[in-house]
């Protein structure tokens, strides 16, 4: 058995960093507020692959037998944290500003300090999300082109896409890098009306085109061609079929000169003949929002396709139904029990239930075109219970809240037993998917539904949500 004494090791290396007089490297840090740090090449090279290369014989500069190294792109505060980490393995971000922590992230990526980089990136997302919301433009400009910062970059883009208007209407939007704008317009969760995207794209293009003033009345043909060149890669990303005829006439048509002829001809044909363009934008766009704490919005499109009895990979178009999900019940808010569920989810209305179970990432759910506790006609009585009929019902499972690979669906096959009304909160078939207070049961013994979920067990419910669905 090996015994470790890391505490004293860290303490002793800290003394070497602060007090030793046998250093052989002077690192000059900062651009305007320059500060010198003293270090040991053997320690730097052992701890950082970057320094292992940078301090090799072929790269170093010496003065009086001392290695002189310049890092003007790193602030003294950030480099002090890096040196302490390199020498002692310690880091304290408690009293550091968001800007300095972001600088530490960028510097640790450059210096190839993988362990430090991963920690700082997670720290920003988990501990400083409020600061991220207020400085999302700064963060994107700092990390957008850093391959290792994908997690933070996607976090920022996802935040913007949930409510893009504050970002697009801000003073900094016309100044954002084209790579950031292009990435935004490609995303399938950009939740904003298409005509608003068009308006702000034009404003961005005007700002990005040298010599182009905002007063369009003074433009000549060369001005339009310059704007066209600026926006050339963005125009195909606009989903013109989602813009109303009135908005197209008032806001798009005046910029006909900047739209490629083939795209403009297809748009006109769509508005005059309702002919769908052959080359739709690669951005699908979410057709609706789902305010769920259980699943991510991208799974809503899969459920849409199941409702319409289409393949899960089907790409929905302007001609497909647009569904609206309205949250009517959430267990953590309203209580998880049979009576409460029935109180909130009573009535003959198309509904979706989602259930997250305890001690697992699995998500279960069910769709009923007639609701879960239906009233009115269309039932029969057996064993004292009411049975309702539907050919559209189905139950399903996801491996987790973002699963698009391993989901399973079981459609109703005995239409007469789609939903049973008994003491349970809801009951698909006779227990195919059934809520009994805090317990979820799955048992396909009555064969009312397909047996694709392949499970016969019970789970404790961690969270449950119900949505009514309307076109």
Automatic annotation (TrEMBL):
A GO cellular component entry from the record: cytoplasm
Alphabetical list of SMART domains matching this protein: BTB
Gene3D superfamilies: 1.25.40.420, Potassium Channel Kv1.1, Chain A (3.30.710.10)
Domain BTB stretches: 23-95
InterPro entries: BACK, BTB/POZ_dom, BTB_POZ_domain_cont_9, SKP1/BTB/POZ_sf, TLDc_dom
TLDc domain location: 293-470
Designated name of the protein: Serine-enriched protein
